[in-house]
Structure formats: structure tokens, C-alpha cells
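User: I'll paste a sequence; please echo it back and then give the predicted structure.

Assistant: Echoing your sequence first, then the prediction.
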Amino acid sequence: MSIVAEAALSAFFDVLFDKLSSSDLLKIFRQENVNADLKKWAMKLRKIRAVLADAEEKQMTDEFVKSWLAELQDLAYDADDILDEFATEALRRELNAEEPSTNTVIKFINDCVGSDRDFVTLMRSKIEDIDTRLQKIVEDKQDLELMENSRGRTKTTISRPPTTSLAESHTYGRDKDKKEIVKLLLESSDAQLSVIPIVGMGGLGKTTLAQLVYKDNEVKGYFDLKAWVCVSEDFDILRLTKEILYSFPPESCGDNYTLNSLQEKLQEKLSGKKFLLILDDVWCEKYDCWTDLRKPLESGALGSKIVVTTRNFGVASTMGTTPPYKLEELSCDACLRVFTHHALDATDFSKYPEFEEFRQKIVNRCKGVPLAAKVLGGLLRTTRNRYEWEHVLNSKILDIPEEKSSIFSVLKLSYNYLPSYLKRCFAYCSLFPKDNEFDEKDIVLLWMAEGLVQETKGKKPMEDLGGDYFRHLLNRSFFQQSSNDESLFVMHDLMHDLAQWAAGDLYC
């Protein structure tokens, strides 16, 4: 029996909850007097969802838990099918009310679906079946002693450690990128404040590039003031204003300042000064949050610059005043140098010719991502056994235990930040072979066929909704443009591995 992925099942539950609370469906639920039954579904499913993380962990060693999760997954699919049937029936009744019964299309639909009475009889039977199975699953949950996240088992919140302005002593392959960003910082501008976004997927080295730029001697001499602030997921304007102010020496502030007093103090500090501010790891793309934060920053002298690092082109559009600088993968040679530095304390294999044969395999495994090269190098640093090297290089990077690798946490953070409907669409893409090039319209049609594109109140065409889904994933670096054909797209190998992790056996 295959492993059931909590990530995929949890996202599927989110979709069920959305459907159970849909205004269109609630109307027909009330008409057929099944509203109370489906409210009980939602209540029981929420209790079950609370133990999913514990169940996912225990299924590795407990066959009964694995079987319980498989039954739950089957029930979730069947419940989703029933809700889709209700949605179809609601649409049929709406069309019947709007069009005369002589309409040939409506008559055809009615002939296929049957009468209201047939539908009610069939649905009551199916709902009773789900009720029985759901009650058994709830009872089995108690017997298996699965713990909720809020009791006894701490839910792990994956977040990235804070960054600083200090760069590693050795970096490779980013000289050209550094020159480009430094050039943007030093060029004259008529704008009071310029914002330069650096965008790329997790692990590419956006922070490292910003650190190199921040420490550049020309940059140091050009600006009156410099500050580095790690933003992360929590775009708290009070906290960020305080950290920005504190980062411009020689400032300090207590805990009792209001946002207004902090912003006035920061405005005074920056007035007439040309400053550089690095805002690292930004996730929030809400325009009003950004405009509130930047108010005191506009008091700086002409030529002041802000560098923003982010995984999301939406953030770049919200904050940037210049086109985003898209950070690409490292060259093969640079990636190898990162690996050999961490694995062998060398820049090549000249002192270790016995490992030269692994050159291409290392390139294939890392695919230009410096964090992947660093992780693999760190894992192999303690051994000079070629068989151990071969074993590690043949494994998936995401199979490496989290305590030994930061890359899984880095990529999983991107996934966790997605809304549930995008999680399911992304997990679906695990079906495609690695390096497969795909067209946006084809993917959208496949998502629609699988029922992954959810209708909205605005009655936007499904193809347009699917296109929005696709662009959201593209903007967040889950997809990237093909280097062979600009009209096609691909998934980076690490993103494909992440999709397989997210899907579990959902599409096996």
C-alpha cells in the first residue's frame, strides 16, 4: 500500500470545505433537506484533518494507520464526487428555470440526469453511505490514538532562518550578476526612490547576491547610509519600521514606540541622506502594506535605492520601480565549484581524480541551484568512499532527512505558502516527466478536466481562471520559461521532486 501524503490530502480537504460552504450548493442542500447532514460532514472532516500530520508520520511504521489514511482518501474522493453531482443538479435546475422545457439542450440534459425525484433518491442513498463510512473513520481515529496538532504534538512551522548582510567567504558564478546590480545602484536617477527587485526560485542565491552587492566597496562609498532587514513571511509594518530604523546607525529604540512615532523618527533620520536598504526575502504582495512601509523612506535624498529579494514576481510588480532582475541558475562549472568547495575544500577534482567520474552526475543533480550543490557537498564532506558518493548522488535531494538538509525546508516553504487550489494544481504536475516542456493552455485544460479549477462568484470563464492559476505558479517560480522555446514552460527538477512529494500517491 502506497504512502498517503498529508500535504495533498489536506489541500483536498480545503477544496471540500470550500464546496460545502458554496452559496450555490447551500441553496440546493436546503432544498433537499440535506444541509444538516453535510454540516456534520464538515464538522467531522475538520476533526479528522487536525490529526492528518500525526497520521502521516505514523503510517511509516503502523500499517493500521496507513490503511486508515487510504480509507479516508477514498472517502474524500467519493464525497467530492457527490458534491460535484449536487453542483451539476443545481446548474440543471437553474437552466430549467431560465429556459423553456422545449429547449433541446435542456431536454437533453434532463434526459441524461433524470428527474428531481430520481436525484433526491440517489443522493440520499449516497449520503447515507458516506455517513456510515465517515463515522467508522472517526471511531477508528480514536482507536489509533492519533493526536491533534493542538494537543500533545507540536505542529512544525517551517520558516526560513533570519538572514544577515554577511556573505560567505567563497561564492562562485555570480560576478556578472553582481556587476549588473551594482551598475543599477550606482547609475544616476531622477527618481526620489528606486526599488530594484531580484527574483528567483528558492535556493538560487538571491540573498547571497544581495550580500555581495551590499559589501561592495563602490556601493559603500556611494551611499550615506546602508541597512539590511530580513522581512520573511510576516510583513509587520511596525516591526519592519523599527528594524529599518535600528539598522541605520547610531539608532536604538525601545518597545513603547508607536508606528507613527517610529516613522517620524525614521523620516527624520533619512531626510536628505542617500541611502541603500536591502529588504531580503519578501513574500507579501499587498500594495497597501508596501505603501504604508515606504512613506518615511521617501524622505531620502535623490538616488536612494532599495533592493528587494523575492521568489514572487507579484511582489516585484508591487514594489519595484525597475524591471525585476531575474536570477538564473549557475553555470555547470560554477555549480561544480560550489560542490567541490563544500565537499573537498577545493575548486576542482585535481587532488581527487577518483571522484572525477561523478562530475556529470553532480551537474545533473544540482541543475544550477547553489543550495543543492552546497547540501550535497556538505553531505559528502565526511567521506572519501566512492560507493557512498554514488549512493548519495543517486538519491533524490528531497529524500535527504530535513535535519541534514535545508533545501527541503526552503522549497516546502514555497509550497506551504500556496492557497489550497494551487497546491492541488501544482501536485497534479507531478504526472509529467522531468524536463517535459508544456504549453499553458494544455495544462489549464488538463486541470479543468480533473476538476481542479474552481468556479467563482464572478462567473469568470473557467479557461481564464485556469490561466490565472498558471500565472500565479509561474510568478512564484514553480514553473519557468523554457530556454528552448519562449512559448513553452518547464519545471525545475527540484520543483518536480517537490510536486511528487506533495502528490504522494494521489496520482499513482
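Confidence is low (pLDDT under 50) at residues 150-158. The chain is about 55% helix and 5% strand.
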